[in-house]
């Protein structure tokens, strides 16, 4: 396995925050106890609880370039959006299919209903929010927020410990050990999302921005805020890739190879210090070649001012699941119950400008 890990720094912003002092292009060790290699976690994603895959529908498929005018609504050319005055309100980003890129953006409270809007783009079954009905009255765990002056309207993923549940709806008091609220590219067929499922040999680029609530706490057990997972096959349970913030103050980027049903043994591809990260928008570009022979993983995460916080370029990885129907991304909060997490507090992960591109060159920034 060959890899390069790059950290870049804006000292004017994070000199007190703890970013590593490394020049762009410099090879450095990862944090949290060493470089890439096999690591173990006491509790990771396993078979506990219901499967996260909704049964597929039987509707017909579509091509990325077959979108009609209805798929392109709310679009505004990227150049026009970039030329807006810095203090101008930021409107909703584009939504629908643009060439080889599928875009999802919020339009804020009072606009289109949140769940139908997400499923219109990512497909029926794209929302995993089993905790909505646990509370009286019910509490939607995927919400929308107004323009905050940085990214425009955006999604807010709610997580409440210890009362949230997983897909099996078993509360912690009855033995449930984890909770989940995520949005994903759905396994269902027939929507405009169909051509954006990853198949063996495909290259995909995933772009988005995320903001972690400043008061959110993490534990030694897992909290995944992004996953790449398989749909179908014997080895679909463990995630292929995760973004996993942990109590030691870093966010791991973890990889689990093929032919396993557990992610207890994972490879840490790199780690990003969390100091200074909560409260600001982080900008992600993730490129994956889905293959076990020429598999490759590239990642760049930038802070809100554009400085590179983490860069990875790893070749020779197992980036496919034997027997899978397809691979797809997920975003949200999936975590193991732990007393080290905030208790009875509304934790939020915020998401904006989600883009899925079939190929290595996005045809829209989704902004």
What are the key terms here?
single chain; 367 residues; mainly beta; Jelly Rolls; eight-stranded antiparallel sheet; 5% helix
How would you summarize this macromolecular structure in one to three sentences?
The protein has helices at residues 11-14, 78-82, 114-122; strands spanning 2-6, 38-40, 96-98, 101-104, 127-128, 142-145, 154-160, 178-184, 203-212, 223-231, 241-245, 250-255, 265-273, 282-289, 296-302, 308-315, 326-336, 346-358. With 367 residues, the chain is mainly β.
Mean pLDDT: 84
Helix segment tally: 3
Q: Report the radius of gyration as a whole number of Å.
A: 19 Å
Output the helix-strand order: EHEHEEHEEEEEEEEEEEEEE
CATH class: Mainly Beta
Can you tell me the residue ranges where pLDDT is under 50 for at least 5 consecutive residues?
5-43, 45-51, 54-86
Q: Oligomerization state of this entry? A: single chain
The amount of beta strand, in percent, is 25-35%
- Specify the CATH architecture: Sandwich
Extended strand count: 18
Number of domains: 1
Task: Describe the SSE topology.
Layout: E1 2-6, H1 11-14, E2 38-40, H2 78-82, E3 96-98, E4 101-104, H3 114-122, E5 127-128, E6 142-145, E7 154-160, E8 178-184, E9 203-212, E10 223-231, E11 241-245, E12 250-255, E13 265-273, E14 282-289, E15 296-302, E16 308-315, E17 326-336, E18 346-358
Antiparallel strand pairs: 1-16, 2-13, 3-4, 4-18, 5-8, 6-7, 7-18, 8-17, 9-14, 9-18, 10-11, 10-17, 11-12, 12-13, 14-15, 15-16
């Amino acid at each position: 396995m060959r890899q390069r890990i790059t950290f870049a720094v804006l000292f004017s912003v994070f000199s007190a925050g703890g970013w590593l002092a490394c020049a762009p292009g410099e090879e450095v060790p990862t944090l949290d106890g060493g470089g890439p290699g096999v690591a173990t976690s006491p509790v990771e994603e396993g078979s506990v609880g219901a499967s996260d895959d909704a049964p597929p529908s039987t509707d017909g498929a579509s091509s990325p370039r077959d979108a009609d005018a209805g798929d392109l609504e709310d679009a505004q050319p990227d150049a026009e959006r970039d030329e807006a005055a810095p203090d101008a309100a930021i409107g909703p980003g584009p939504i629908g299919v643009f060439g080889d890129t599928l875009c999802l953006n919020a339009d804020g409270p009072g606009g289109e209903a949140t769940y139908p809007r997400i499923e219109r783009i990512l497909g029926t079954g794209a929302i995993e929010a089993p905790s909505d009905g646990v509370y009286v009255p019910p509490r939607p765990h995927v919400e929308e927020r107004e323009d905050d002056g940085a990214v425009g309207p955006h999604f807010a993923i709610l997580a409440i410990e210890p009362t949230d549940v997983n897909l099996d709806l078993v509360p912690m008091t009855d033995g449930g050990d984890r909770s989940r609220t995520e949005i994903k590219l759905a396994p269902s067929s027939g929507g405009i999302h169909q051509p954006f499922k990853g198949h063996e040999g495909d290259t995909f680029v995933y772009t988005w921005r995320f903001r972690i609530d400043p008061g959110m706490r993490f534990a030694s057990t897992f909290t995944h805020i992004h996953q790449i997972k398989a749909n179908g096959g014997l080895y679909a349970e463990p995630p292929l890739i995760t973004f996993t913030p942990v109590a030691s103050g870093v966010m791991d980027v973890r990889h689990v190879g093929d032919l396993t049903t557990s992610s207890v043994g994972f490879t840490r591809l790199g780690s990003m210090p969390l100091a200074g990260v909560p409260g600001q928008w982080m900008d992600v570009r993730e490129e994956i070649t889905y293959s076990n022979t020429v598999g490759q993983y590239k990642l760049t995460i930038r802070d809100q001012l554009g400085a590179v916080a983490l860069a990875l370029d790893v070749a020779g990885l197992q980036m496919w699941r034997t027997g899978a129907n397809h691979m797809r991304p997920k975003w949200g909060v999936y975590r193991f119950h732990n007393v080290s997490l905030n208790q009875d507090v509304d934790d939020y992960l915020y998401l904006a400008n989600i883009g899925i591109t079939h190929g290595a060159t996005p045809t829209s920034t989704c902004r």
